Amino acid sequence: MSEAVVGTLADMVKAALVLFIIVDPFGNVPIFMGLTEKFSDAERRKVFNTAIFVGVILLLVFAFTGQEIFLIFDISIDSFEVAGGLLLLITSMRILVSGSLYESTEPMESLGAVPIAMPLLVGPGAITTTILNLQAYGTFVTIVSVLIVLFLTWVILRYVNSIYRILGKTGSVVIARVMSLLLAAIAVQFILTGISHFLA
Fold first, then answer.
1. How would DSSP label each residue in the chain?
2. Which pLDDT score is estimated for 1?
């Protein structure tokens, strides 16, 4: 296997891992169950299928238009990296303090699109990370990482009942906290990298 292929696979793993941590499907399992507790299994699957479809579309739109967004608003990757790092840090702190990113459980007609797809799965943190991955790893790696993460999320949602029974409420909360700590570390690294590039 050539060094280029190995490098691409390594980048893909890193990009997918960071995005998976931010999407945090395991940590959001209790929220998914709470939002769909009155639904039948078939209805729940339909909602989650909609959520994954909408999530993929949203992240791919940002993957394809990320470069143009920077040009239109005249934003450098360094400034965006610092801003994105701060946003991710706030996100991780919110998970640590409240245990989730979404506090309302009001039923909605388009539950799959809002709030499950946006902002639970594809929130500001995921969008920020997708754009940063695009800048760091290129379009191909970013698109593949989005597809990998959303596919894994679909699998988790597909078996959310079994996963919730295995993890339990306490296990889900613990996973959410651990993920938020990793997210905080990634956020700090984004900020430090952006500042160091700016100073250089």
1. --HHHHHHHHHHHHHHHHHHHHH-TTTTHHHHHHHTTTS-HHHHHHHHHHHHHHHHHHHHHHHHHHHHHHHHTT--HHHHHHHHHHHHHHHHHHHHHHS-S-------TTTIIIIIIIIIIS-HHHHHHHHHHHHHH-HHHHHHHHHHHHHHHHHHHHTHHHHHHHHHHHHHHHHHHHHHHHHHHHHHHHHHHHHHHHH-
2. 65
Dihedral sign for Cα 96, 132, 9, 144, please.
Answer: positive
pLDDT tier for residue 106 given thresholds of 50, 70 and 90: very low
Query: For 158-177, b where at least 16 C-beta lie within 10 A, e where not — what string?
Result: eebeebbeebeeeebbebbe
- Residue 191's CB is within 10 A of a number of other CB atoms, namely 18
Is the predicted pLDDT of residue 151 greater than 90, yes or no? yes
Structure tokens that stand for 73 in this block: 């608003």
Top-confidence range, 17-21, 87-91, 132-136, 175-179 = 17-21
Cα dihedral across residues 84, 89, 92, 98: positive or negative? negative
And the tokens for 91?
């996100």
Kindly report the pTM of this predicted structure: 0.70
| Structure token digits, residue 185 | 């570390």
Find where tokens 């296990």 sit.
171
The answer to whether 14 and 142 have CB atoms below 8 angstroms apart is no
